[in-house]
């Protein structure tokens, strides 16, 4: 590839990583803010897994955003070796972080489907979920918490997959730029 095509690919990949990273960050914040902050109990391993997987997803999104910014910077300035090495390390960390988050979210979805969302509804003491929105026994509206959480996690899975693909793309392009 010539330097002009390197610049175009880096710019496109960097912009995609920025957008996808921000979307994944927002998705993780929504899941945490609407559901997980009420669900977490240190003694419950399922809810603890939910929080760890979601927090790791937010951290991986921040790594992806950093990788996107570095790719955009490298698309404008192809000569600095330090920038190339920074992109190589960030894209590697982003790829591995997103892959581990992808696996963690798959386990969280499996656990949720396996226990029909009982861990998500654990803070609610109301037995009839139709009455829970008018009750003060539940800190959130439990009528849609199960489906909303699963949908947001599915969106996060899709975004994590995109982050992996474009981080690997940056990684391979950086390896080519470094002649490794």
UniProtKB/TrEMBL annotation:
**Transmembrane region positions?**
15-39, 51-74, 86-111
Q: Which GO terms describe its cellular component?
A: membrane
Membrane topology reported for the UniProt record? Multi-pass membrane protein
| Domain of life assignment | Eukaryota
What is the protein's major site of localization? membrane
**Would I find Transcription regulation among this entry's keywords?**
no
Where does the record place it? Answer: Membrane
Q: Does the keyword NAD apply?
A: no
Keywords annotated in UniProt: Membrane, Transmembrane, Transmembrane helix
PANTHER family linked to this entry: KERATINOCYTE-ASSOCIATED PROTEIN 3, TRANSMEMBRANE PROTEIN 54
Q: Return the similarity comment.
A: Belongs to the TMEM54 family.
Q: What is this protein called?
A: TMM54 protein
Q: Which organism is it from?
A: Sapayoa aenigma
- What gene is behind this protein? Tmem54
């Amino acid at each position: 590839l010539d330097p002009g095509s390197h610049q175009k690919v880096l710019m496109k990949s960097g912009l995609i990583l920025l957008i996808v990273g921000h979307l994944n960050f927002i998705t993780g914040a929504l899941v945490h803010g609407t559901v997980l902050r009420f669900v977490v109990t240190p003694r419950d391993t399922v809810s603890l897994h939910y929080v760890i997987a979601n927090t790791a997803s937010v951290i991986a999104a921040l790594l992806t955003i950093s990788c996107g910014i570095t790719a955009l910077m490298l698309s404008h300035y192809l000569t600095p070796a330090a920038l190339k090495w920074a992109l190589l390390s960030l894209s590697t960390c982003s790829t591995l972080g997103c892959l581990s988050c992808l696996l963690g979210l798959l386990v969280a979805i499996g656990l949720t489907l396996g226990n029909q969302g009982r861990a998500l509804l654990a803070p609610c003491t109301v037995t009839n979920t139709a009455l829970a929105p008018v009750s003060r026994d539940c800190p959130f509206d439990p009528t849609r918490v199960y489906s909303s959480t699963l949908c947001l996690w599915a969106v996060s899975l899709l975004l994590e997959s995109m982050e992996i693909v474009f981080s690997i793309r940056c990684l391979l392009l950086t390896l080519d730029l470094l002649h490794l």
